[in-house]
Amino acid sequence: SALKARDITVIRGTSPERGIVNVFEGMTDFLSLLVMMNFNNLAGDSLIMHSLSSFQRAADFIRSQDYRVINTFLDNNRPGEEGTEKFKAEFGGRVAPQSQMFAPYADLNDALCANRFTG
Fold it and tell me: What is the CA radius of gyration of the chain?
């Protein structure tokens, strides 16, 4: 079940213990990760920003939920890196950037498309 705020979407994870949130720039990135992992959903909650400009809305939501771990899956480009730094500035050591996972690709969807045709 998705909760839609004005500019973020939160998809509750399968784990009843809400300690982890996964942050994505867009819905396509979230869906690409599910396809790559062959999952229907992630254990932790997922927050889709839809745009990096909704950082403040995302940060306010995260603060309201008391997450211990914040996995960020932001793009491997300057805006994505700046977004990751903003999360680190706001939440410190709780932020665990995951962008290396899909480097050298810009985002999860590019990585999915590239790897779909190899192996």
Answer: 14
95 and 72 in contact (C-beta within 8 Å)? yes
Residue 12 CB contacts under 8 Å (≥ 6 apart), including other chains: 1, 3, 45
Write the Ramachandran bin of 90: left for phi over 0, alpha for psi from -120 to 50, otherwise beta: alpha
| Amino acid at residue number 46 | S
Q: Are strands 69-73 and 45-48 parallel, antiparallel or unpaired?
A: unpaired
Interval 25-80: pLDDT, tens: 999 999 999 999 999 999 999 999 988 889 999 999 999 998 999 999 999 999 99
Residue 25: exposure state from Cβ atoms within 10 A (0-12, 13-18, ≥19): buried
